[in-house]
């Protein structure tokens, strides 16, 4: 799984670099689309991999903070 993750990240980086160098709009758009697809695939692989305890704690804290809201005083 790490090999696949590294490969998708590498392909994403290469596509972004080539898109930055491209002078043709169609080629640039295609490269950016492929880079985005590679990013989505890499994120899906990362979501499946077991997280370390610290990363899990950070994610739990983010979820808790996003739910907690300070009430407005009237």
Keywords for this entry:
single chain, 0% strand, 74 residues, elongated, 3 helices
Describe the structure.
With 74 residues, the chain is mostly helical. The protein has helices at 2-21, 25-48, 53-67. It has one domain (2-67). α1 (2-21) packs antiparallel against α2. It starts with a helix and ends in a 7-residue tail after the last helix. The model has no long low-confidence stretch (mean pLDDT 82).
Give a quick summary of the entry:
The protein has 74 residues and is mainly alpha-helical. Helices cover 80% and strands 0% of the residues.
Give me the secondary-structure topology:
Elements (H helix, E strand, L loop, with lengths): L1 H20 L3 H24 L4 H15 L7
Helix pairs in contact: 1-2
Task: Report the helical percentage.
Answer: over 70%
* Proportion of beta-strand residues: under 5%
Mean pLDDT metric: 82
Categorize the overall geometry. elongated
Biggest β-sheet description: none
Number of helical segments with 4 or more residues:
3
DSSP strand count: 0
Give the class from helix and strand content and strand pairing: mainly alpha
The end-to-end span amounts to 53 Å
Low-pLDDT regions: none
Number of domains: 1
Radius of gyration: 18 Å
Q: What is the N-to-C order of secondary-structure elements (H for helix, E for strand)?
A: HHH
Oligomer: single chain
């Amino acid at each position: 799984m790490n090999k696949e993750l590294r490969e998708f990240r590498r392909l994403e980086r290469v596509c972004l670099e080539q898109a930055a160098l491209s002078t043709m709009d169609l080629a640039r758009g295609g490269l950016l689309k492929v880079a985005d697809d590679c990013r989505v695939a890499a994120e899906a692989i990362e979501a499946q991999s077991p997280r370390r305890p610290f990363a899990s704690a950070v994610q739990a804290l983010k979820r808790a903070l996003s739910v907690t809201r300070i009430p407005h005083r009237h």
